[in-house]
Amino acid sequence: MRLSIIARAALIATLAIAAEGGTGWQIAPFSRPVAAPAIKPDGSSLFLDPVSGSRVRWEALHTFNPAAIVRNGKIYVLYRAEDDTGEMRIGLHTSRLGLAESTDGIHFRRRPQPVLYPDNDSQKDREWPGGCEDPRIVESEDGTYVLTYTQWNRRRTDAAIATSQDLVHWTKHGPALGMAGKYASLSYKSAGIVTRLSGGRPIAAKIGGKYWMYWGEGTIRLATSTDLIRWAPIEDERGEPVVALSKRIGRFDSSFPETGPPPLLTEHGILVLYNGKNAPSGGDPYIGANAYAVGEALFASDRPDKLLARTGEPVFKPELPFEKTGQYAAGTTFAEGLVWFHGKWFLYYGCADSFVGVASAGPLP
What is the 3-state secondary structure (H, E, C) of the chain? Predict the structure, then answer.
């Protein structure tokens, strides 16, 4: 799908004049129900890695950047866990996805083994030795769970798709933008599929007969799909992916924005929570250099490329010690999971690439 020159000009104009302010469309304010991580590393968890053939402490170093979904009256969180192999540097351990469940959204019981990980399968070359990272999850109309996650082989990243019926057994489908064609060599990540709230559960939503996905780090772009597995970027008249959201000088997203939890189709429009990285200079002076904080943007419900409003300040940012110090020294509240549960919103986020945190907020106005 491509935008005409006129449509592209209208989009640029919209981006330029999009409102900053007005809270009627936002999920805010967020508060922390507990001043502690919800999920921490566990050095006692062992896993027989199928690629190396060795037993590894698969969640010994860090547990962070979680997806979340409601199933059978519980919140399930899929979280990124790093083992203690490799060099002591960011991105040089192997990541796998663990699964934890909660009846109150705050206290979790986790499975002893990861549920998604590098294996001797068709995706090994894309996932080994870096691993499976940074998930987001939605449910389809037929109850299938659709996961977007980052494949990292320590050379490049891909935003990939996996599906499951039970959150435990997963089928990998490979990169969302395909393994052939013009996007096959693109290094990209961070993909959130647009949802609608149905019976309290976020279900993948069709707009104009197609599913939509906001994707990307650096700039946030768009793609569409008819089956939630194969995705095609929205392109401009030059054949380049259309930019939905970009950085702003002097703001918390002055280095770049990055897709957060699956966006939500509301009566106000498409609500996109995203992670903004603050520039080391010329950014938000009230947030540390290179820190990540959460912002919100609103797009037209019938035009997912049309920006209507965007918060000028972050709605959630690193404040507590475990959010401001850790593997990522600048600090993060890196949001990837958002669910409606027991009459409120629960936001799950990564804390300094080290822990899983939880925040909550009331319903939309």
Answer: CECCHHHHHHHHHHHHHCECCCCCCCCCCCECCCCCCCECCCCCCCEECCCCCCEECCCCCEEEEEEEEEECCEEEEEEEEECCCCCCCCCCCCEEEEEEEECCCCCCEECCCCCECCCCCCCHHHHCCCEEEEEEEEECCCCCEEEEEEEECCCCEEEEEEEECCCCCEEEEEECCCCCCCCCCCCCCCEEECEEEECCEEEECEECCEEEEEECECCEEEEEECCCCCCEECECCCCCECEEECCCCCCCCCCEEEECCCCEECCCCEEEEEEEECCCCCCCCCCCCCCEEEEEEEEECCEEEEEEEECCCCCECCCCHHHHCCCCCCCEEEEEEEEEECCEEEEEEEECCCEEEEEEECCCC
